[in-house]
């Protein structure tokens, strides 16, 4: 997939934040992008040969992945969608708020990767599961979010094992973005963790290094999509400085 012209990419969770940045970057690189979100979304016309088609559907609905994979036959599948965690300490969560990301994010990864294997996607396809850096560092103010994101990474690894066992030629990888103030998801978390640490938001962000932007997330996914599949690792931490392979 060194050349994305003529390729189809399906970005699940493309309406905002990192997902939107990934959809725009992939279209700018020449792909025909199917941008899936739960609500109607508009996108600017991409330059070059690429295009973006907005599709409204619930990514967590078990009937959606098979239907859309059959309809669009993507060579690049990127899963970004998930629930926004409620930011509060453990004792202020209910089980329903604590488990929200298990019931949404993990569910999405399970259904989409299952269908990618069952269909299966064509040989040479790449599947990118956007998890979170919280899967490595924990996230004490967001309930079960960190555990759910770690499980997404595990599911990606399981899918790769099954693809290899069946000789499908599909590459699965997990990308774990570091917390960032540049998205609607990250901004309230940055504010809450800064307050918890007795820091200003500026101090907290400064210690994280260069903030991760939607544009840099798009560039990172393009790097993976264009790479020789044999060189794509099972997982990466993603920061403002780019991808860092995980051990």
TrEMBL record:
- Look up the domain of life of the source: Bacteria
**What InterPro entries does the record tag this protein with?**
NAD(P)-bd_dom_sf, SDR_fam
Manganese listed as a keyword = no
Query: Listed GO cellular component terms?
Result: membrane
Q: Which PANTHER family match?
A: DEHYDROGENASE/REDUCTASE SDR FAMILY MEMBER 7B (PTHR44196), DEHYDROGENASE_REDUCTASE SDR FAMILY MEMBER 7B (PTHR44196:SF1)
One short Pfam name that applies is adh_short
User: What's this protein's family per the entry?
Assistant: Belongs to the short-chain dehydrogenases/reductases (SDR) family.
Keywords (A to Z) from UniProt: Oxidoreductase
- Molecular function via GO: oxidoreductase activity
Know the name of this protein?
NAD(P)-dependent dehydrogenase, short-chain alcohol dehydrogenase family
């Amino acid at each position: 997939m060194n050349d994305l012209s003529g390729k189809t990419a399906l970005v699940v969770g493309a309406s905002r934040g990192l997902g939107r940045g990934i959809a725009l970057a992939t279209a700018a690189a020449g792909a025909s992008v199917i941008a899936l979100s739960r609500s109607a979304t508009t996108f600017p016309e991409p330059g070059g040969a690429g295009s973006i088609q907005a599709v409204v559907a619930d990514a967590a609905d078990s009937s959606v992945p098979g239907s859309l994979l059959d309809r669009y036959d993507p060579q690049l599948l990127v899963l970004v969608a998930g629930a926004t965690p409620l930011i509060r300490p453990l004792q202020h969560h209910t089980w329903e708020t604590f488990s929200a990301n298990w019931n949404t994010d993990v569910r999405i990864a399970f259904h989409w990767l299952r269908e990618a294997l069952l269909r299966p996607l064509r040989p040479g396809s790449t599947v990118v599961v956007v998890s979170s850096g919280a899967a490595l560092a924990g996230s004490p103010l967001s309930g079960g979010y960190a555990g759910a994101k770690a499980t997404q990474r595990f599911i990606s690894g399981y899918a790769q094992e099954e693809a290899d066992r069946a000789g499908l030629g599909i590459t699965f990888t997990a990308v774990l973005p570091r917390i960032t103030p540049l998205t609607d998801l990250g901004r309230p978390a940055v504010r809450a963790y800064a307050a918890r640490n007795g820091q200003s938001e500026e101090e907290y962000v400064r210690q994280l290094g260069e903030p991760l932007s939607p544009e840099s997330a798009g560039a990172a996914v393009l790097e993976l999509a264009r790479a020789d599949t044999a060189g794509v690792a099972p997982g990466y931490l993603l920061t403002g400085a780019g991808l860092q392979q995980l051990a």
